[in-house]
Design goal:
By secondary structure, this protein is of the alpha+beta class. The protein has one domain (18-92). It is 40% helix and 19% strand. Helix 1 runs antiparallel to helix 2.
Length: 100
């Protein structure tokens, strides 16, 4: 019994193209990055804010008042937009060409 050696003219094995693997990894990294950025910026479960309210008390009268500090806090719409684009990038890799 002899071992069969691969023929040089045999076609390459069909596998997942490199661009599909790359797009799937980019989609996963984009989703992870969007979540990490949103979490690091304050876990804001509301809309995006560019100013945050700060309560202060007047030293003389004792009256409480609100001032605003410029601070960017991404909201859930930016998180969902980033996750949507990462899922779209991931989903593109499953679209196949029609065979002729």
């Amino acid at each position: 019994m002899t071992e069969a050696s691969p023929k040089p003219e045999s076609p390459t094995p069909s596998g997942t193209p490199a661009w599909r693997v790359l797009f799937r990894m980019l989609g996963g990294f984009l989703a992870l990055f969007c979540f990490a950025f949103w979490a690091a910026a304050g876990w804001n479960r509301g809309w995006t804010k560019t100013q945050i309210p700060i309560k202060q008390v007047d030293d003389i009268t004792g009256i409480e008042f609100v001032t605003y500090k410029d601070h960017f806090m991404p909201g859930v719409e930016l998180l969902s937009l980033g996750v949507f684009f990462s899922l779209a990038l991931f989903a593109i890799t499953f679209i196949r060409r029609k065979s002729r």
